[in-house]
Amino acid sequence: MSDCDPYNNDGTLAGGYMAERRWERARGLVPVLAAMLSGCAQKGFWLFHPKGAVARTEWHTTILDVAVMGGVILVAGGLVVAFLWRYRAGNRARTYDPHFTSSLVIEVLVWGIPLVVVGYLSYFSVKSVFATNPYNPLAVRQAVDRAGGGLREAYGERADPTVVDAMGAPPPATRPLQVEVVTTDWQWVFIYPHQRVATVNELVMPVHTPVEFDLTSATVVNDFFIPELVGEIDIMPGMRTKQALIASRTGTYHGYSDDYSGGGFSWMGFRARVESPQRFRSWIKKMQAQPVHLSYSRFRQLARPTINLSERISRFSQVQAGLFDHVVERVMEGRVYPTPLAMTENMTKPMKVRLIK
Amino acid sequence: MSKMNDMDPAGAVLWAPHDAEPDMIATRTLGFWLYLLSDAMIVASLFASYLVLNHRMNAAAGPTAGAVMHPLTALWETILLLSAILAYGLSLVALKRKDRRGVLAGFGVACMLGLGFLVMEGHEFADLALRGAVPERSGYLSALYTLVLYHAVHIVFALLWTAVMAVQVARQGFTPNVVYRLLNLKLFWFFQGFIWIYVFCFVDLTGALHVH
Amino acid sequence: MLVHYPGPWTPLLGRLALRQIPYQNPILVWTFVLVVLAGALVVGAITYTRSWTYLWREWLTSVDHKKIGVMYCLLGLVMFFRGFIDGVMMRTQQVMAVGPHSPGYLGALHGYLPPYHFGQIYSAHGTIMILFAITPILVGLMNIIVPLQIGARDMAYPYLNALSFWLTAAATGLVMISLFVGDFSHAGWVGLIPLTELAYSPGVGVDYWIWAVQIGSVGTTLASINIIATIIKMRAPGMSWTKMPIFCWTALSTSVVGLSSFPVFTAAVALLSLDRYAGTHFFTAGLGGNLMLYTDLFWIWGHPEVYYVVLPAFGILSEIIPTFSEKPLFGYMTMAAASIAIGGVSWSVWLHHFFTMGAGPGVNAFFSIASMLVGIPTGVKVFNWAFTLYRGRVRFDLPMLWALAALVLLLTGGLTGMMLAMPAINYTVHNSVFVVAHFHNMLNVVGFACLGAINFWFPKVFGFKLDERIGKRAFWYFSAGTAVLFGCMYALGFMGMPRRLDYIPFPSWRPLLIGEEIGIVLFLISSYYLVKQLYVSIRNRAQYRVSGSDAWGTARSLEWLAHCPVPFYNFAVQPHINVRDEWAWRRQNGLGQTAPEHYEDIHLPNNTPIPLFIGVLTFALGFGLVWRMYWLALASLIAIIAAIIARAFDDDPGQTIPGERIRRIEAGLAGVLEGRVATGDVVVGGAVAFETRATKAAPRARDA
Question: CATH class for domain B32-208?
Fold first, then answer.
């Protein structure tokens, strides 16, 4: 039932100031509420069900913050409601004292209580910032530690990106998997530099293994987000950002862009599959046998404005070495993948770009 | 507890005998100060942009500050501009004596020197552009041109304003309306000098020192 | 120097061509028909009642702070309606376009809005609501109330005041005309960079956005200058800083915030326009641009802008709650201090709008703590309002209901605000509808406060109250709509739904989207009652007329010393201030009816059409720049400068209203209040309350 908390919040929010008669009027909403509650049971609340260490830390921080702030809000709101009730004009029994307009004790309390609460939350904020820092999340490191002491060193040392693993060798569980993410208008390209394979709109990762992402965009700003696994990080053209996660359960999750990037933004999703190490290894093998290779010139074709309506997945092997850096450098030198004028002018026929159905 | 609201009503003064009209010139000058504050925020944003973009990466393999700055030219420009401001300031000394001719003479000198500043700066940037260092070349040059030309546009308006005031002084003499405009224009001129000092220090001088 | 852009260009019309008129789009065609019909109706009504001269002399050329304030509020309410319709369209699209099998209409794959049209609607919604609805309403309220509260005759610079308004109106005009000529930006009210660059937005939409917000922000900066100078220079004798009504404190704090932050916005948008017009590389991804520079500059304005709208709302609550608690505001000094503190802290929190940028944990931690600090003065305010109720006599009049609901919303908004201030939580809900729910929650605090303020001060300006029964109905539907719509939206945030989706890929979000749509229906019902409230109140204004200067019987600050409706000169004789709640003190000590012994001459400025002209020219300038009709832009710019110079040569001596005439008007006003028929100089409720300056004073000015 914890899924349904927001509705309860909603109810409290309403109950604060809404008279009973509104409930009478609201009776018609009951079937809808039921529908909403059933929606609740569908486990759509991805943030409530984290499947990775980073997402879990973020969710626990949320719970803590809501608990603390909820307490303060309840006190303040309770005070308001109690005073409203007791000192309503119709209540003859109450005291009326228009001279009670300041009090040192109360002033100290009303400045002091928020100060203490903010101080307390600040402490947890700083702690959780480091735990979820996209560039080096301590939460991932701790998860690795819990899995086995010796893994710590391996994770602490960043893999040398110039070293290319032996073809086909699975990443050892101790070593983070490197994935490079390039967004285009409006698709996702995931490059596995050490395995020299790449996919479009599908991200496959082994479970219980740290995964480190380098992200850049060929066009405009996007946001990388897999609600159940990890929070957001901006993806910016001509720049590189980083993110890291560790998944604790196999499964298929939804990832998508969270920052508006133009006409195809709504369709800019990808499948994030978390597999067992064995299956991941065989997936890599299969990938490396793909007939289509990914060079920069093919990437440029790929990066033409495209709306991938069905999240169709493309797979590539023999990825050009250093493709990610090449994309970043070309963008810095001024390469753009312009949006066609016809798409942004004529509103009745908007789909003037490549559509993948 | 609420002393602020307890006062003996007997004998309290309820109405002001006259409208307490604030001093017109002081009010107008205050407003102009506030305008200058807002303009200073724009300049601060432009400076911030310049400082962010004054980096080798943002020169995009084009010229960097060290290559485009001529501190000696900038020094002559500084002297011209500050002399123009001084001339305007001195013309307001004539205002104290109610000396119309003195004020107008000061305006004339200020305008000539200001025009000289603009010509010199225009020459400097035209030269730069002809050598290919146009604002479209790189983020750094965009910031440089924008910052300096924003100041230059202000000088153009200062000259225009001074010309208008010359007509007003000649036609109307020193009425309160003319006087407050003269005082505000003084602030405006000084403000331009103030910005220029920053441009000179942080764009020209440090630019010349930078060897990227 | 000028940049290359796709599409044809002609010297006369620039980029404008017939195909830019969206005549194939039935939605826009019907909107156009409706607008033309409504416009014809208004024009017809004005012509029928022969009010053109009246409109011109009393309103369009007015420099009276009350009239300008009313025009600001009217403009804001009209734009609020437009922004609301945009919101309805967005929600409806989202509820229709769920899943790959949802049908599409009017050329859309799903729902009825193609992505680009949807992008324009959400961008227009945000831009309009923040810059052209809430901001004008608040500036209008400050315009009306601040001079009255400090006992001034007008703002410090009445002419500049009119100019600020007409610049805002010109900017609004640009937003409105983008509906029917060309298109609007699709890059959000924040101008998402580098989506706003020419490569990714080659049309004129972003240009419309640029020039509308640019002109509007100049107008608001000038308004801030005016309010600061008014409060510093124009306070009545005896009104020390600590005797100033609290709303003035928030107005001062908010204007300082506005004055110092809007220019940064001006700079950011100006640099963006250079990128689009001159081909510079400030914010491009390549060739040395730095796109995060735009994001920083934008939010260095954007966050203070949030407090720019929230602070006056706090001021409004601080006026309404004591009035209906029959008690002075609790902790006046700390309330003033908290207002200044909020304004100050607002400057050091902007980075929390992009915690996900990838800044180091140290940077994020700093801005996290700074953002949480805002909670302290805000918490102080909530507690102080609570203790204002304590030992009071609380009445639940309509303004009080709006204020209390705003207080409740502030609590929930504070809860979610504290969540967003923590980067670890922010990573999961940034750019999701959770953020949208949060800031709608907070902006609803402002909206509720504005509606409370309009109900509260309406009789002060017009002499009659707004209908309480219909108003309460509007209130309850509005509150229910807020709770349902934004409650569902918060929940959707926990489901991970991004904002600005025009197609919903996950059917699991549908039930809550339906919930949002129900909220929208409640808002629609509420807006019906709001319009009805206004209409019924104006039609039956005689029955809603208030007697005496204090419409609520328990008001406290100085504006309630002036008549309802306020005559054009505000106070017949400038009051001398003795205590903080001057009117409450006078009322309680039986001095409320004490009239001045004799009336002095009053000096006021004359009306002038120049601000209106400059507004029209600025509109032409913006339109010329949007379509790159450079001749039009240049001609308008020269004309604007010429108008400013011409004004400098037209020293307005103003007009003097003889004390004798003031005495007669005052006697007449007293007559109106006693129910006797008004004649001559006397003004009657309704819009005629403003029947004032030029019509009556002009002949006398000629005599003199």
Answer: mainly alpha
> Tokens 């980029």 sit at which residue?
C15
To probe the interface with B, which of A97, A99, A330, A335 has the most B CB atoms within 10 Å? A99
Q: Do B34 and C271 touch (CB under 8 A)?
A: no
Quick one: which H or E segment has residue C474?
Answer: helix C468-494
Nearest CA in chain B to C653: B177
**Res A144: pLDDT:** 82
Would you call B146 and C228 a contact, using CB atoms and an 8 Å cutoff? Answer: no
Q: Do C221 and B38 touch (CB under 8 A)?
A: yes
Is residue A10 within 8 Å of C491, Cβ to Cβ?
yes
- C-contacting residues in B 45-74 (Cβ below 8 Å): 45-46, 48-49, 52-53, 57-60, 62
Neighbours of B51 (CB within 10 A): 14
Percent of chain C with pLDDT over 90: 79
Count residue pairs from B and C with Cβ separation < 8 A: 181
- Contact assignment for C408 to A36 by CB distance below 8 Å: no
Residues of C in contact with A224 (CB under 8 A): none
What is the distance between the alpha carbons of residues C266 and C259, in angstroms, rounded to a whole number? 11
What is the residue-averaged pLDDT of chain A? 83
Contacts of A260 (CB under 8 A, 6+ apart): C119, C187, C188, C192, C195, C431, C498, C499, C500
Residues in chain B: 212
CA closest to A41 among chain C residues: C508
The one-letter amino acid code at C582 reads E
Is C179 part of a structural domain of the chain?
no
- Evaluated on CA atoms C361, C362, C364, C365, the torsion sign reads positive
pLDDT-based confidence at A347, cuts 50/70/90? Answer: low
DSSP character string of C104-129: B-TT-SSBSS-HHHHHHHHHHHHHII
Collect all residues of chain A within an 8 Å Cβ-Cβ radius of residue B55.
none
Using a pLDDT cut of 90, give the percent of chain A over it. 66
- In a domain? residue C373: no
Q: Which A residues 144-183 touch C at CB under 8 Å?
A: none
Range of the domain at C601: 546-608+652-704
Residue A261 has pLDDT above 90, yes or no: yes
Please name the residue of chain C whose CA is at the shortest distance from the CA of residue A329. Answer: C286
* Residue C306 belongs to some domain of the structure: no
| Residue in C411, C500, C514 closest to A265 by CB | C500
Please report the residues numbered 56 through 95 in chain B whose beta carbons come closer than 8 angstroms to any beta carbon of chain A. Answer: 57, 60
d(CA A278, CA A273): 14
Question: Does the pLDDT value for residue C474 go beyond 80?
Answer: yes
3-state secondary structure of A273: strand
The yes/no answer to whether this complex scores an ipTM above 0.90 is yes
Which chain B residues are closer than 8 Å to A101 by Cβ? 1-2, 5
Closest-CA distance, B125 to chain C, in angstroms, reads: 14
pLDDT value at C409 more than 80: yes
* Residue ranges covered by each domain of chain B: 32-208
pLDDT for position B211 = 52
CB distance B131 to B138 below 8 Å: no
Domain over A177-337 is classified CATH 2.60.40.420: yes
Residues C552, A107, C438: CA angle, nearest 5 degrees = 70
Contact C414, C378 (CB under 8 A): yes
Q: What is the mean pLDDT of residues C80-97?
A: 95
Collapse the DSSP code of C623 into the 3-class scheme (helix H, G, I; strand E, B; otherwise coil) and give the result.
helix
CB spacing of C408 vs A264 below 8 angstroms = no
- Are the beta carbons of C281 and B142 separated by less than 8 Å? yes
Range with the poorest average pLDDT among A90-99, C292-301, C329-338, C470-479 = A90-99
Which range, C307-321, C555-569, C672-686, is most confident?
C307-321
- Examine residue C30 and state whether it is found in any structural domain, yes or no: no
* pLDDT exceeds cutoff 90 at C701: no
Domains in chain C: how many in total? 1
